[in-house]
């Protein structure tokens, strides 16, 4: 479970006013709000990528200070896809597991099958350089998906995908949802429709559940 207590963020302006809420274990939460309202900032704080907030974030009973990072299996799908252009597509998918020092639960054949399912039907040994926007998002999603993380943070993970691809990704999320706590930011409610247990909003600078 992720507990947020008296949590606020100020940069050189006030972004989020003191708010408290919780993300229950193995529940799927959609986090919504207008552009620039602070969704990515909150996700970064939960994902250990920003620690300049006030208040506390407690994950499975532990405060999310830097020392806790290695203990939690958190996967993060960034709003701007991260692709290493000179690395193969295959290695781009595996890089998350490698960085975390986790043995990937999926073998080559299974990764090929996942790629095929998501219509990444080309030689995975070629460099990631020429992937399209939607393809980059699929690679980013699979990088996080194969970790089977305890916590999955999705920041507009399908924004560049066509409807058919979104449906396929949703089917994978439906499986993952059984064993992961998922937080999904999106401007398109179709992306989390049928998956979501709870919706959170940022209204007037407050995080409201
Ligand atoms: N590290 C930072 N320092 C200063 N300002 C920042 C920083 N990070 C984000 N901001 C600003 O905070 C505001 C909220 O940004 P954030 O990325 O959290 O919004 P968002 O809700 O994710 O928006 P979108 O839906 O467009 O992705 C923006 O005005 C942004 O420019
Ligand atoms: Mg954002």
Q: What is this entry, summarized?
A:
Helices cover 27% and strands 26% of the residues. By secondary structure, the chain is of the alpha/beta class. Helix 2 runs parallel beside helix 4 (133-145).
Describe the structure.
The chain has helices spanning 39-46, 89-100, 108-117, 133-145, 163-176, and strands at 2-10, 14-23, 28-32, 54-59, 62-63, 74-77, 151-155, 181-185, 198-203, 206-208. 27% of the residues lie in helices and 26% in strands. A hairpin with a 3-residue loop joins β1 (2-10) and β2 (14-23). The protein is of the alpha/beta class. The strands form two sheets. A six-stranded mixed β-sheet has the order 6-7-8-3-9-10, with helices on both faces. Strands 2-1-4-5 form a four-stranded antiparallel β-sheet, covered by helices on one side. The protein has a single domain (2-208), classed as P-loop containing nucleotide triphosphate hydrolases (Rossmann fold). The radius of gyration is 17 Å and the shape is globular. α2 (89-100) runs parallel beside α4. Magnesium ion is lined by residues 39-40, 79, 155.
List bound small molecules.
adenosine-5'-triphosphate, magnesium ion
Q: How would you write the strand order of the largest sheet?
A: 6-7-8-3-9-10
Please state the structural category.
alpha/beta
CATH superfamily: P-loop containing nucleotide triphosphate hydrolases
Number of separate strands: 10
How are the elements arranged and paired?
Layout: E1 2-10, E2 14-23, E3 28-32, H1 39-46, E4 54-59, E5 62-63, E6 74-77, H2 89-100, H3 108-117, H4 133-145, E7 151-155, H5 163-176, E8 181-185, E9 198-203, E10 206-208
Residues 39-40, 79, 155 line the site of magnesium ion.
